[in-house]
Amino acid sequence: MQTPIHTTLIKRNKVSTKEISGMAPFLVTIFCWLGSLIASLMNWRDHSKNEQKRHDGRLSLTSVTSQLISGVAIVTAIAVSVYFFTKVCYAVPIHDPKQFLLLIGGISFVFYLLQSAVLDLLGLKGWPLLLIIWIGSMAVITFIPQMLSPFYHNYVYDITPIRFAYDLILN
Question: pTM for this one?
Fold first, then answer.
């Protein structure tokens, strides 16, 4: 009488305890943005501090080219780091590592170029703009667009660069 219904629990899909599952595309995108953000700031500070400035206060073509070349090395390190954490530490299944590394490297390089351009044009005054883009994007990219208010849909979701990278990783 105490147990009128008898049930049997059958596990059909085992879930690992260290898997990040559905949040993986979001976290990978945010790690790409954050890694590129830190790298672009450090690289911009180094180039702006150690270079003779032009009369208009902007960086020279040599410095910008050097930022691009060092950006490739930085982006490679970001892609390998993201791959290491997703595959090794969190055991997220990645079927084609080469394609994943190229995708993450490409996304990180676009983020790096965008952030370096803002820093080269606005200087350190552009840093809060990049932080606002990062924080604002984190709040909206995991929602479907129909759930957002018209303001967030038209002025935050539609223009955030992080959304496009998230869609690439998700699909």
Answer: 0.78
Give the chain's radius of gyration (CA, Å): 21
Report the alpha-carbon distance of residue 102 to residue 3 in Å, rounded. Answer: 56
Question: Which among 142, 143, 155 has a CA at the least distance from the CA of 29?
Answer: 142
Percent of the chain that is helix, strand, coil (3-state, to 5): 70, 0, 30
pLDDT in tens, 114-158: 998 898 888 888 888 888 888 888 888 878 888 888 888 888 888
Count of residues making up the chain: 171
Dist. CA 115–CA 161, nearest whole Å: 11
DSSP 159: T
Q: Rounded distance, CA 126 to CA 116, Å? A: 10
In angstroms, the CA 118 to CA 120 distance is: 6
